[in-house]
Design brief:
Blueprint (H helix, E strand, L loop, with lengths): L1 H10 L4 E3 L4 E4 L4 H13 L3 E5 L19 E5 L6 E5 L4 E5 L4 H8 L4 E2 L5 H4 L3 H6 L6 E2 L3 E2 L4 E7 L5 E3 L12 H5 L8 E8 L1 E2 L3 E9 L2 H13 L6 E6 H7 L10 E9 L1 H17 L3 E2 L2 H12 L11 E5 L4 H14 L3 E10 L2 E10 L2 E2 L2 H13 L3 E2 L8 H11 L12
Parallel strand pairs: 2-4, 3-4
Antiparallel strand pairs: 1-2, 5-6, 6-12, 7-13, 8-9, 10-11, 10-12, 14-16, 14-17, 15-16, 15-19, 18-20, 18-22, 19-20, 20-21
Helix pairs in contact: 1-2, 7-9, 11-12
């Protein structure tokens, strides 16, 4: 009760909700209130857990890092303002609780855009997009979302607020903003960010292609990317997936459908599309009905429903591993009596994400089949979506020891 009263004094009683005897949800209305909440929670050695765009997520499970200590879940939904928009420098300073889609709606009437990032990513709050480093937050045209971050404001475990400097790279030393990106709230609680934005493209073109195999389609994509084409979207469907997504589209077994979108000044968008076409032809493919690509793009960006069910397994793979991962998972599933199909998208310099959908005897995949597919993917060199490397944990822990010796900042994350 002492902690609850202290939190209510910081943000107002109407913005504090007791979830149970040791857990509270707090909704600060400013960066200063976030700092005060963290300072007061730290005085009670309470664990701080960030809550993103929804702000009313179900009660978080208690981990071994939380046992016996109070927990304060800080929601950012009231931090939803654009603080500054510089249309000359193409920079926007926005609070962390604003979602990517909300920011996009603010920018669009000014002929501006965050960039060609997947809408499913932009549904999250900006703080969540920046703090949680997951694959798929990238665009072949605009790079990784973290690359758009040129400045961050965050609150540290002791309640201090830090602002990373917005300056030319040659004018800066070690960049704390890079450390905060992907730190999942373990180093600091992000309250706002300065992002690089873009002019909306003059033209957007789509195209569809049929290739003799998924391997050929992957080769065509990376051939085009090596030629420095910058598409706004790419997706490869195997024959079974294409037939499911496009109303019984007739394709020969083993073939693949590639949908592509390019954007920018008309001449540049046309040039990028022609480079993709050239790569497809080099891999033995041909152009197809562009209406297929238009359907794909509307589903991706205009909210048109995608045929279900959702993918059963999502994995990421580097460029050299994508083909092998696809072949290994599909062949192992079929060998075990499953019907399996897949599509591949979110291509970037690090690789791509593979989405597998499978079932057996008309029933959804059970745990044994899911485990089989996951092990097959890992054996072929893939990472399960959300997995991370542990080689740098020594450095992360040293930084946390210095900034957060009591481990109050999202203590169960990145462990």
């Amino acid at each position: 009760m002492i902690l609850e009263a202290s939190l209510a004094d910081a943000v107002g009683a109407e913005h504090v909700e007791a979830i149970d005897e040791l857990s509270y949800r707090v909704v600060p209305g400013s960066a200063a209130e976030v700092a005060e909440v963290i300072r007061r929670a730290g005085a009670h050695r309470a664990a701080i857990h960030p809550v993103g765009a929804g702000g009313r997520a179900a009660k978080l499970p208690v981990t071994r890092f939380d046992e016996g200590r109070p927990r304060v879940m800080i929601a950012t939904r009231r931090l939803d303002q654009v603080l500054q928009l510089d249309e000359t420098s193409l920079l926007v300073h926005a609070q962390a609780g604003l979602t990517g889609l909300e920011l996009e709606r603010i920018l669009n009437p000014r002929n501006l855009s965050i960039g060609d990032y997947p809408p499913v990513v932009l549904m999250s709050s900006l703080g969540g997009i920046i703090a949680v480093r997951t694959p798929g937050k990238s665009s072949a045209r605009h790079g990784f979302f973290e690359d758009a971050v040129v400045g961050v404001s965050a609150v540290l475990a002791d309640g201090r607020t830090v602002h990373t400097r917005v300056a030319p790279r040659r004018s800066t030393g070690p960049d704390l903003a890079r450390a905060l990106c992907g730190s999942e709230g373990t180093i600091g609680f992000i309250t706002s960010a300065v992002l690089r934005i873009h002019q909306k493209p003059e033209a957007r073109l789509v195209a569809a292609y049929i290739l003799p195999s998924v391997d050929a389609a992957v080769s065509a994509v990376y051939l085009a990317l090596r030629e420095e084409t910058a598409p706004s979207g790419l997706r490869i469907y195997d024959a079974a997936e294409a037939q499911r997504h496009f109303g019984g589209l007739q394709m020969s077994a083993g073939t693949a459908l590639l949908c592509a979108a390019t954007a920018g000044p008309t001449d540049l968008a046309t040039c990028d599309r022609d480079l993709i076409t050239s790569a497809v032809l080099a891999e033995g493919g041909r152009t197809s009905d562009h209406a297929l690509a238009e359907i794909w793009w509307r589903r991706l960006h205009a909210g048109e429903p995608t045929p279900g069910p959702p993918p059963t397994l999502q994995v990421m793979a580097t460029p050299s591993k994508v083909r092998g991962v696809y072949q290994r998972v599909i062949s192992d599933l079929i060998a075990n009596g499953a019907n399996a199909r897949a599509h591949i998208s979110r291509f970037d310099a690090d690789g791509a994400v593979l989405f597998f959908t499978f079932e057996r005897s008309g029933a959804p995949a059970d745990d044994s089949l899911l485990t089989l597919a996951a092990r097959s993917a890992e054996a072929a060199g893939a990472w399960l979506l959300g997995a991370r490397a542990h080689k740098l944990d020594l450095y992360l822990n040293a930084l946390r020891d210095n900034l957060d010796p009591d481990r109050i900042m999202n203590p169960g994350a990145l462990t």
